[in-house]
Every structure is written in C-alpha cells, then in structure tokens.
Request: fold
Amino acid sequence: MKKQSLIFMIALAIIVVVSCKPKQQAAPVVSNEPAALLAEIDQSAPVNTLTENESKSGWQLLSNGTDFTGWHGYNMSGIPDCWIVEDGSFTMTTTGGAESQDIITDKKYKSFALFVEFKVDTAANSGIIYHVAEDTMYQFPYETGAEYQVVDHENWPDSLADWHITGANYAMHPPMVRPFKPVGEWNQAFLVVNGNKVTHYLNGEMVVEFEKYSDEWNVLRNSGKWSDFPDYGKYDEGHISLQNHGTKVWYRNVKIKEL
Reply:
C-alpha cells in the first residue's frame, strides 16, 4: 500500500471514530437574574408544595400548610401563641395595631430568592424582613433587617409616605409601580437578594431595585427613620421574619432558593 493511501485511511478512521462519539449535552443555563428566578416558580402548582422542577432548581419550602416547621418566635424557642395556621396560611390573632412577637426562620440566609403569597385584611400592616439578627439586645427584627413592606395602603386611615406602600423597601425606597391586589385577594411577593443587589417584585412586576451600600443607600440609611437605629442594615446574613403588627395578614406558599 502506498504511503499516501495509508495516511488517508488512518485519517478517515480517525474521522469516523470522532464522529461516532456521542455528543455531550450542554449544561443547562442557570441564571440568578430576578426574572429568570421568578420564572422557575410554577404558579399553577398546589399551594404549599414544590414541583419536581422547583426542587431540582434548588427551591425549598418554608410553609407546609399545617404547622410552623422551620420557624420560631423572635428571641423565643417556640412559636408565639398569637400565631396560628389557618386554612393552610400563617396568620396572627393579635389586635390593636401594635407590633408583637414576630416569627423568624430557624435558618439564616445570605443571598437568596424568596417567593411568598399574602393577603391583607382592611387597614392591615405587616412586612417581610430579612438579614435579621436574633439577639436579646434587640426587641424587634426591623431594628437590624430591611423590610419588604406589606400594608393595605388603600384603606389606611392616615396618609402614607410613598416608602410605606406595599412592595416598598420600607422607609427607604418607594415602589416604582403599584400592582397591589385589594383586601381579600392573594398577592405575590418576590424578593431577590444577590450580594448587595436587591430586587422587589409584586404580582410579577418589578417595583424596587437598589444596591446596598451605594451612595444613595447610605444617604437614605443615615437619615429619616433609620438614623435612630444604629444597627439597621448592618448584617449581610440573617433570618427572614414575618411581622405581626397587630392586624390580620395571611402568608402561604413560602419558597426560598439560596443563591
């Protein structure tokens, strides 16, 4: 066999072998962008459950519809008597409008995406607070953690500042739009904390976006309400809290994904 023919046959064999190798499937693209994370939630699934795809994507359930597994009272070992599970939802029995005995997750979180469904009673006030430090030197979670505001601003008896509207970063950043569903209807809160970047969604629309420790954040943090709270925003990891402000609010379908 001529040398040229031998070289040709070897080259042809290599091509055949390479072409017959199974192609490796590309790894699925994982995005921590808020819109992509929100799209991972199957909103047609039964309440207080995780779908197989949600579980594979890293989502975990923080509400089972029957008890407070994964939660405890702030600076307490158990659940306060004023918190109950009602029709598959966390809610409170306290009245009078004063803050009293918030609950927090057993676990601390740093960067995460959080999905929560909530509905409010008339003139109700509450909030979802994160990066909360649990310590007896503090009386309430809001002394350290930032708050996704939950309030019936439509029926509030007094005029509210724009940073007190549902979806706001309470006492810091007002919502850009107000896609709030009224008393008795379920709303969807979606919160993404990815490093210093924080995004709030309400009913599928982005309402707040900010960068922690930015010049703007520092100005807002050091003025107004938080000037009297030296440890507000101090922590970059902490518990997640549901606030009991002495009015009726319901929370369900609580799902979290660590980033």
User: Anything to note?
Assistant: Confidence is low (pLDDT under 50) at residues 6-20. The domain at 27-258 is CATH 2.60.120.560 (Jelly Rolls). The longest strand covers residues 249-258.
